[in-house]
Design goal:
Blueprint (H helix, E strand, L loop, with lengths): L20 H25 L8 H6 L6 H22 L11 H11 L2 H14 L4 E8 L2 E8 L10 E7 L6 H4 L3 H8 L5 H10 L2
Antiparallel strand pairs: 1-2, 1-3
Helix pairs in contact: 1-3, 5-7
Bound molecules: manganese (III) ion (MN3).
Manganese (III) ion binds next to α1.
Length: 202
């Protein structure tokens, strides 16, 4: 089965509290689709990889044949990153983190406000295109950022949540003002979905 873009679990206009409808269409229908198409193109050259999930592929990039390794890194990463991204947002999101992840954030960072501040700073500080993440690494929560479509799974870290700081994620509404996008993004974070990922982090 080739990889596919999952449909959005809400309407394209559902995240207006942070992201406009046109950006959602371009981002989901065009950008994410392009990562999936390029990933499938690479896998066609190595049918032995057909049974593997995108997560499995990027977890061990050294196991990927060299001729498609960079394509899988960029586009397998793009597929995994965006699939998570749509899942962890929602129209009834926002507010303070709930449940186990709320407690863990307070324990690790002092408060949600302190966590958000550090996370947003890491997002602003990512030069060029990339992602900012909350990961579980060696049993601890950490904020990290990655370039391009690199995913923390490739470094043995589990992504609990992540925000896309490529310009395509925010430029129509926020233009050059990435900090404003990072701040508004918390209005649509779906803490139930983030708790599910935290539970899966082990
Ligand atoms: Mn993107």
């Amino acid at each position: 089965m080739p990889h596919t873009v999952p449909p959005l679990p809400y309407d394209y206009s559902a995240l207006e509290a942070a992201i406009d409808e046109q950006t959602m269409h371009l981002h989901h229908d065009k950008h994410h689709q392009a990562y999936v198409d390029k990933l499938n193109g690479a896998i066609e050259k190595h049918p032995e990889l057909e049974g593997k999930s995108a997560e499995e592929l990027i977890k061990d990039l050294n196991a990927i044949p060299e001729d498609i390794r960079t394509v899988v890194r960029n586009n397998g990463g793009g597929h995994v990153n965006h699939t998570m991204f749509w899942e962890i947002m929602g129209p009834s999101g926002g507010g303070e983190p709930t449940g186990a992840i709320g407690d863990a954030i307070t324990e690790a960072f002092g408060s949600f406000e302190d966590f958000k501040k550090q996370f947003n700073e890491a997002g602003v500080g990512r030069f060029g295109s990339g992602w900012v993440w909350l990961v579980k690494a060696g049993g601890a929560l950490k904020i990290v950022s990655t370039a391009n479509q690199d995913n923390p799974l490739s470094d043995g870290q589990y992504p609990i949540l992540g925000n896309d700081v490529w310009e395509h994620a925010y430029y129509l509404r926020y233009q050059n003002q990435r900090p404003k996008y990072l701040e508004a993004w918390w209005n649509v974070v779906n803490w139930d979905a983030v708790n599910d990922r935290f539970a899966s982090a082990g």
